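Appendix B, example 12.
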Amino acid sequence: MFKFQKEVAHIFQRVGSRIAVSPDLSVLLHLALLELAMLPQDVRSHKTARVSEPFCETEGSQVPARRQKNRDFPAIARRRRSGSAPERRVNCVLVGDGAVGKSSLIVSYTTNGYPSEYVPTAFDNFTVVVVVDGKPVRLQLCDTAGQDELELLRPLCYRNADVFLLCYSVVRPCSFTNLTDKWLPEILQHCPGAPLVLVGTQLDLREDVQVLIQLAQKQQRPVSTEEGQRLAQELGAAAFAECSALTQKNLKDTFDSAILASFQQAESVTVQQQRMTLLRKTPDKIKNLSETWWRKIGCLVGEQSCQTK
């Protein structure tokens, strides 16, 4: 006999009464075992294992609780689930000469990694969700080709651009001069009015001895910070930054400047639209004013007498 003898006997009586025609012993046994499994367990003799307990006895193999996943969701994910904070979208396009480090900036910013070798970019899109002033922002980064052979592909990124990162390498003076000779006219042609952020890349190489020797052999020197700031003022750029994808110095601030420049541009456009709407609607409202209101307005501005007929 086993532990639940009385319970099983009682179950067989109940289950047997359910089978009215040709009772089958196997069916009877299965139903009895099913109800046996539903009997309440003795919690004193059978300890219920916690979900967070490890499945094996090896130290260090702790299994986290199943519900712990929901607690570890980032704040952005929780807000997105509740629907209380809709995402804003910013389309940021990086332009500049080839090999100035545009792709490295994006890879370092989005993955905290650094590419080991240079591969010319034809066209790449990256999307990352960041938090600005406590609100989620979906930042789309468009990496364009700097080579002349791929110039026909670049305008595909310019159509929906909210902000441009105008990139040059601080250790490649030719990339700095090409900003005004090549890149700025191209941006103004396809996307006039978009805010610009001037970015000096490869900041970690400005004091590299080998780089300085190579530049000296060509009778060149790195682009100084003052030169970059002066050009940013001449171009009317929304911001200026120098950063390094390798060390990530000023990297986050660079993309934050681009996001804020996009926000400021959107707000200024909204204000202008509201002003234009008022200018269009105000004359119609004035025309509909009564003659009495016209006299009152003239009285206030001192153009007519305050006497009424």
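The chain is about 45% helix and 15% strand. The two ends are 117 Å apart (CA to CA).
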